[in-house]
């Protein structure tokens, strides 16, 4: 059975899903959710990765992302690999001139203020937004997000994150 999954963070990248998570969507399309905005308020594990993407309700806002059509078992693997911080919710998502209910992840425990994300993480989001032809305004929005970078430490931690996600995706 297939499920629609709306991604707004690193999972927007089909390449990331395939190479890191070993998940191949049946299809992927750019889309958006109304009355939600993407914020960097999911607290990361340390100062090298201080924040990750989350969505929160905001009237008249719009968060762009990618709708992946994938196997229910793949969606379960994504949810399991994201950890207990996120909860799976269903929301109206528009893509290809239609609105459907899709599953997405939202953080249960977030900070009230936005934090900078790592430059590594923001590069993944920006590349995925460009790859999936999200709007120029949205790419600009992502590029304007604050990020942090610590030479050497950032590279070492990026390798640890890669293997952590790879192991949990099995």
Write structural notes for this entry.
The protein is of the alpha+beta class and 170 residues long. It has one domain (2-168): Gamma-glutamyl cyclotransferase-like (Hypothetical upf0131 protein ytfp, Roll), CATH 3.10.490. Helix content is 32%, strand content 40%. The protein has 5 helices and 7 strands, in the order βαββαβββααβα. It has helices at residues 14-19, 72-82, 119-131, 136-143, 153-168, and strands spanning 2-7, 27-43, 51-71, 86-95, 98-107, 117-118, 147-148. The strands form 3 sheets. Strands 1-3-2 form a 3-stranded antiparallel beta sheet. A two-stranded antiparallel sheet has the order 4-5. Strand 4 (86-95) and strand 5 form a beta hairpin. Helix 3 (119-131) packs antiparallel against helix 4. It is globular and about 45 Å long. The model has no long low-confidence stretch (mean pLDDT 88).
In short:
This protein is of the alpha+beta class and 170 residues long. Helices cover 32% and strands 40% of the residues.
Based on the model shown, name its key terms:
single chain; 170 residues; globular; Hypothetical upf0131 protein ytfp; 32% helix; 3-stranded antiparallel sheet; alpha+beta; two-stranded antiparallel sheet; 5 helices; 7 strands
Structural domain count: 1
End-to-end C-alpha gap = 19 Å
Largest sheet, described in full?
Answer: 3 strands, antiparallel
Radius of gyration: 15 Å
Reconstruct the topology from this structure:
Blueprint: E1 2-7, H1 14-19, E2 27-43, E3 51-71, H2 72-82, E4 86-95, E5 98-107, E6 117-118, H3 119-131, H4 136-143, E7 147-148, H5 153-168
Helix pairs in contact: 3-4
